[in-house]
Specification:
2 strands, 59% helix, 308 residues, single chain, hpI Integrase, Chain A, DNA polymerase, domain 1, 3% strand, two-stranded antiparallel ribbon, mainly alpha
Length: 308
């Protein structure tokens, strides 16, 4: 199995272009299962054993991690690593195992706050450059999208509905059409424009004023699923928690402004919430944590956050 695991690790590093940190995490998770299996079955597993491992085996592994007081977050990541490993085994060796799909990952206790950690936001910049290294314009697009949602608190649909003429001339505000075709005015910060203009300068198509701002690799308007996939790829690449989504970027914007002194009515207007009760959810946060996020991750205090 050592050779197979080495092939898998090389696949992650060379084909998937995962970071050294991410690859090391996958390796540790796979090795943890193999060491457990050796004790569980009385012998080191071979390829055929990987196909025969059943739900009892996987549940016993999870139980062993619980006895070792492994964090739920760590065990959930380990389950994700094993599922990825099995997909590799299927593709490379035609080794299948349906049992792994029947095991639920441990539930990760969620905080009320879903704001993204400052280090995670910062790491997205380099992750985008690594994921889209072959296409600089895609790297610029993905970072512009992240910064726009994060810096203006937009929904995916709102960001993707923007046309070139909406950002032409660097206006101080954007007119956003939200749910129910309700319009609102959102201030736009200079660092957000810098990221957008970087993307626009590199974009190979879609330059007409009426064209949608964000384009797919084929030149078509970007879809919400494509935008979700951008953040999903970042989450997988950086091994971030499941709550790191485009909506979490919007949430981080909201909690940052709230901690900076914005009143709920103003925040309600900026977010386009129809009900103040929805906006009030943002008051149930650890304000010290949010102040730290605001200071380190918000575009207002990070003027050089663009793809270079």
């Amino acid at each position: 199995m050592n050779q197979v695991v080495t092939e898998f690790i090389n696949y992650l590093a060379q084909t998937k272009n995962y970071s050294a940190h991410t690859v090391a995490a996958y390796d540790a998770d796979i090795q943890d299962f193999l060491h457990f299996y050796t004790d569980y079955a009385g012998a080191a597993p071979q390829l055929d054993d990987m196909a025969r491992a059943d739900t009892l085996c996987f549940r016993a592994w999870l139980a062993s991690r619980a006895r070792r007081q492994m964090a739920h977050k760590s065990t959930a990541r380990a389950m994700s690593s094993m599922r990825t490993f099995y997909r590799f085994l299927k593709k490379r060796y035609n080794i299948s195992n349906d049992a792994i799909g029947l095991i639920s990952s441990p539930k990760i206790p969620r905080k009320v706050s879903k704001a993204i950690e400052p280090a995670d936001v910062s790491n997205m910049h380099d992750a985008i450059k690594a994921i889209d290294s072959a296409e600089p314009w895609l790297a610029a697009r993905d970072w512009a999208l992240v910064v726009l949602i994060f810096g203006c608190g937009l929904r995916i649909s709102e960001a993707l509905s923007l046309q070139n003429r909406d950002v032409s001339g660097r206006p101080n505000v954007l007119r956003i059409t939200g749910k129910g075709n309700k319009q609102r005015i959102v201030p736009i910060l200079a660092p957000v424009y810098d990221a957008l203009e970087k993307y626009i300068a590199l974009r190979p198509f879609g330059a007409a004023p009426e064209d949608f701002l964000f384009r797919s690799v084929r030149g078509l308007p970007m879809t919400p699923r494509m935008a979700q996939k951008v953040v999903e790829n970042l989450r997988n690449y950086l091994q971030l928690p499941d709550y790191v989504t485009p909506h979490a970027l919007r949430h981080t914007f909201a909690t940052a402004l709230l901690s900076g002194g914005a009143d709920l009515r103003s925040l309600q207007e900026l977010l386009g919430h129809s009900s103040l009760s929805t906006t009030q959810l943002y008051t149930r946060v650890n304000m010290d944590e949010i102040a730290n996020i605001y200071a380190h991750a918000h575009p207002r205090s990070n003027p050089h956050s663009d793809i270079e």
